[in-house]
Each structure stands twice: as C-alpha cells, then as structure tokens.
Amino acid sequence: MKSFGLFAVTLLFPFSVFAQSEPDYEALFKNLQRLQQEIKQSAQTAPTCKIMPLEKCTFDEYCQKLRGQSQNFYLYKNKDGKKVPNFFFIRLANQVRGCLDQPLPEIDTQDPFVNPLKLTKANPSYQAELARTQKIFADVQAHAVAMLESRKTADNAKEIDQEIKRIKAIKMTSPVFKDQFAVEKANCVLPGASYQSSDNSILLCPQMLNMPDATLFSTLAHELSHSIDPCNAYQEIADTKISVGKNPMQGVIACLQKPSSLEAVAFSEKNLLDAITKEQDQLAKDLGPLSAEVKAAFQKKKQAIAAGFKTNQYCRNFSKNSDMQEGFADWMSSKILARKISEMKDGEKAKAYAFESQLMIASADCKNIQIAAIGRIAEAVKQDCPVFGQSSLDFMLNPEAYADPEEVPHPKSSRRINKILFAPSEIQKALACSGSNKINTCE
C-alpha cells in the first residue's frame, strides 16, 4: 500500500489555452529564471522551523502552521538538519518550463535526497541515512510488538503470536535507481513507501531518507501495519495466516466503521453483487442485448465475489475501497506512535516528535500550502504561460476528480488526521491541543 497516498498529485496538466495573445517568452524566461534562483536560495538559507502550538488537533490547523514555508524549497527543517522538501512547489516550478520555447535548467540544489537518480550506494550520505532509517525501523518493529503483546488474551494469544511473528520478519529496503524507468517502476517518482505482501517487505523511496526521525517512524509504522491489516491478515505471509473469524483485531475493524471513528466503508457481499448487476444492466442499456459470452463474464465476476468474500472483503482491489486497509494501518500506526511518545520524558521533544510525525501527509495534501505555492507561480508566469490556466489549477487542487476510475484512493487526509492519527490522548497531550470528545479511539 502506498503510504499516505502520500503525494498523490501527478502534475500532468491538461493543455487548455487561456492566453489571448502570443506569450512574451523573453519576459517569461526571465521571470522563471528569477523564481528558480529564489527557490534555490531558499534551500541554501532554510531556517530551522519552530514547532508552533496547535489549539485544536485538526488537519486544517496543522496545515496552517506550515503555510509560511509554502513558497520555499523546504517545507520543514528541524534542528538536526533533517528536512521535508516542498515537492509540490518544486515540481510546479519545474513543470511550467514547458511554457518556454527554449530550455531552462531544472532547479538544482545538489540535494541528492530530492532527486533519487543522484543517489548512489557509495554516497556517504546515503549510507549514513540508510543506517539511521534501519535503526528507526527496528524501533518501529519493537513498539509494534509491544503494542500487540499488550492486547494479548487467553483467547487470542495464538493469533497475536502469528501477527508478531509476521511483523518481526518484515524487511525494509531503500534502493538506489539507475534510470527513470526503475524509479517509476518502484513508484518513487515522489517520496513515499509501500508494503509488499508477496515477500513481506517495505520499500521506502530514497527521497525520504533525510527526513526527520518522527516522519520516518510514522510512515514505517503505517506500512508495517499493512502486514496484518484486515485484507492481508487472511493471506499466507511469512508462514503465518489468520483464520476467518479468528482475527484478534475484529473489534477494531468493527469500531472503524462507526461514525464516531473513521466511518470506514465496509461493503456487504450483497453490495458487491448488486454493483456487478448494475454494471451489467447499464451496459445492456447502452449497447443493447448482451451476448452469451458477455453475460458469462459477468456471472464469473459474481462467482468470484461469492467465493472470495470472507477472506477478501476488506481488500482494496476486491471491494474497490481502501477505507478499511488504510484506516486500520493509520489506527495501528497511531497506537505505535503513541507508545513511542509516551516514553519521552522531555515534553518539548515529545511535542516535536508528534508534530513531525505527520509531515508526509501535510506535504502532500495541505490545500492552503498548495494554493499559496500556485499563487507564487502564477505571479511569475502572469499571462505568458498558456498551459497554466484555470483547468490546470483545478486539476492540481482536485486531482481526485481527474483520477483513473480504476485507481482506489486513500481516505481523505482530513479524516485520517482528525479521526485517527491525532486522536490518541498521548499525541494530543504532546501537542497540547484539544480534540473532539466524540471521537472513538477504538481501544
């Protein structure tokens, strides 16, 4: 599962012409060149970000605290020099180079963790950050095991031990790439991480290696949790498999469906079968009577639903909904993070750790940051970039409206932050913010 849908915006603009006259390419070149120099300068002089207090534990307020960095190369930099690049702004600035009739170099700050093709295995920075991240992952595994041990009872001990065995067996890699094809194949055009059930492993895109400890901890905890999510729990992984009806997290799964929690969608077998019938009826309405072959194909779909429902009902590719898999991974990662933070005796350290834990989601999905970045670009290109029209802006801010219908989106970030990730009392205490007393934390 791709972490946090983390960076779900792909900047491939629809080419609609809005300029009323021929662009002033000379002015545009100078403006873009100036903008790139300003962005590069902001990378070299990036200040250490202060953790500003949150009054409410909400996604909107969290995003608001980061808005001041929305037009800089780095969205966040902590006192240890760990950074979260402002990938939305950087890619946006590079993208509008397509408006020119002459080449303009990409922004180059010599930061190898921005462009994965700059990293090599021999790079000392890569080796050092990979070693740091492996230690963080081992810490995540230890806290995940402790969290599961705390939920063990006489009735579920066997199943919990199976989950612990699976989590202990997970391996984490963060490879380097030889070419752009390899980057795209690994889904690392933008920073993120993914869990692979086929070999019980986590792939962390190398762009993340220089990010703060807490950002890495939270991301890795989310991906690790996918190994026992309501879909993967019933699969054969690392010589373990939970039987249907024996999932020790069944109470959590039921809780996540409640309006007081994530209100995760959980389809019944009838819902899925009805959807196939509706699809078949619509096709017949559009094309006329269906052939026996087409009808047989729809019947085969229904048989697959009936045969696999019990073990696959929460799988995103089966139900075309990711709420339960992603919601569970968020829930478990929030519990793992809460345990980590509760051990910190230094209140300021705990506060910084809690704040930095969700920077991946913020960098990908804070609309106020995106709007501010777009405004800065728009000021530079003015009327001289025809492809930078209203339809492009709408596409950037509302990518879900243009998404491939076969893609299954993550739950919205506001739901994830407000109802799951900032819900634990330990995290709210660290951030000194107030949450809704109506939220069910699914203990």
Protein architecture, described:
The chain has 443 residues and is mainly α. The protein has 18 helices and 5 strands. It has helices at residues 25-44, 59-66, 87-95, 124-149, 157-169, 180-185, 213-225, 250-256, 269-287, 292-312, 316-319, 323-342, 347-356, 359-365, 367-381, 390-397, 413-421, 425-431, and strands at residues 74-77, 83-85, 171-173, 193-196, 201-204. It is globular. The two termini are 24 Å apart.
Task: Produce a short descriptive summary.
By secondary structure, the protein is mainly alpha-helical. It has helices spanning 25-44, 59-66, 87-95, 124-149, 157-169, 180-185, 213-225, 250-256, 269-287, 292-312, 316-319, 323-342, 347-356, 359-365, 367-381, 390-397, 413-421, 425-431, and strands spanning 74-77, 83-85, 171-173, 193-196, 201-204. The chain contains 18 helices and 5 strands.
Mean pLDDT, nearest integer? 89
Could you state the order of secondary-structure elements as H and E? HHEEHHHEHEEHHHHHHHHHHHH
Find the count of extended strands (DSSP E, 2+ residues): 5
**Can you give the helix content as a percent range?**
40-55%
Q: Kindly report how far apart the N and C termini lie.
A: 24 Å
Strand % is under 5%
Task: Output the strand order for the largest sheet.
Answer: 3-5-4
What structural class should be given to the helix and strand makeup? mainly alpha
Q: Helical stretch count?
A: 18
Form type: globular
User: What's the story with the biggest beta sheet?
Assistant: 3 strands, mixed
Low confidence ranges: 3-20
- Please tell me how large the radius of gyration is: 23 Å
